[in-house]
Amino acid sequence: MVTGLEAEYPMNGSIVLGSAIVGLLVGLTGAGGGALMTPMLILLFSVKPSAAISSDLVAAVAMRPVGAAVHFQRGTVNLRLVGWLSAGSVPAAFAGAYLLHTLGRAKAATHRIELALGVALLAGAAAMIARYFLDRRSGNRRLGVVSQVSLRPLSTLAIGAVGGLVVGMTSVGAGSLMIVLLMFSYPALAANQLVGTDLAQAIPLTASAALGALVFGQVDLPLTTSVIVGSVPAVLVGSLLSSRVNDRYLRPAITVVILASGLKYLGLGTTELAWAVGVVLVAIGANWAFRAAPGAVSPADR
Fold it and tell me: Phi-psi bin for 104: left (phi > 0), alpha (psi -120 to 50), beta?
């Protein structure tokens, strides 16, 4: 068994560029880190799953604080909410890394985990789309401020524990899965408030999971460096955008990233995924054009 720091994969400019794209999405939506970064490393660059997961987790320790710092400055982080999430996620993330180590990295077990995540993420994306149309019909606008949120300790602790366990085993969950759960536990909050809190709670979560990866996993130092070099500047740019972008634009972006993550974990090929995302983007653009047409103002826009 190979554990600890390795140097099997050299620095790679293509990985740097790919990591920058994922980093931009993470900063913009709080989602898509492990759900897109790990499959990208495995499918596009033929990195071993164990090395991709472990290196991605360690790189996230450098990436997440950059995005969180921007949102701290903008006041879109609730430290009490972050505290309850972390109380569940930190021990669960380390436990997840240990389970991955003890259960082995058998393809069958990994495949089952990925399928379950894919289904969960697609269900979350579908629910977010349904909620969007319901909000339009009712005129509801989700503009709540995170500093005024009514905290739900037990459900928040449970969200942290579920997300932490999953991220420890697969490196996905800190963004894609947890932001879906947060959206439905705190539905009144504006999207940028959720993104800021999610990025902040991911700091102790990824640190715990990364520690587990260093102890039980296979962290490739040059590979991790490539991911950090590409993702850190990009997540800064994405976070600056997400802290200022209107909710009506940010929520669709989050939905698209979560949808793409779910499809990827269900095994959709890169070309098919690109077509699927393209169709969704065209549909979103058509919807915006329809809403902008004279006489097509919805109750939520009044």
Answer: left
- pLDDT tens, residue order, the chain (302 aa): 444 555 677 778 889 998 998 888 888 887 766 667 877 887 778 888 777 877 887 888 888 888 888 888 888 888 888 899 999 988 887 787 777 767 655 566 667 767 777 777 787 778 777 767 766 665 555 555 666 778 889 999 998 888 888 777 766 555 667 777 887 788 777 777 778 888 888 888 778 777 777 776 677 888 889 999 999 999 999 888 888 877 777 778 878 877 887 787 787 776 787 788 888 888 877 877 776 666 555 544 44
**In angstroms, what CA-CA distances link 15 with 18, 52, 55, 125?**
5, 12, 12, 27
Residue 14 tokens read as 């293509």
The answer to whether the beta carbons of residues 121 and 255 sit under 8 Å apart is: no
Specify whether the CB–CB gap between 85 and 156 falls below 8 A.
Answer: yes
CB contact at 8 A, 280 and 120: no
- In the chain, the amino acid numbered 265 is Y
C-alpha to C-alpha distances, 163 to 112, 171, 287, nearest whole angstrom: 17, 10, 32
Q: How many CB atoms are located within 10 Å of the residue 236 CB? A: 18
pTM for the model stands at 0.70
What would the DSSP string read from start to end of 262-291?
HHHHTT--HHHHHHHHHHHHHHHHHHHHHH
**DSSP of 21-66:** HHHHHHHHHS--HHHHHHHIIIIIH---HHHHHHHHHHHHHHHHHH
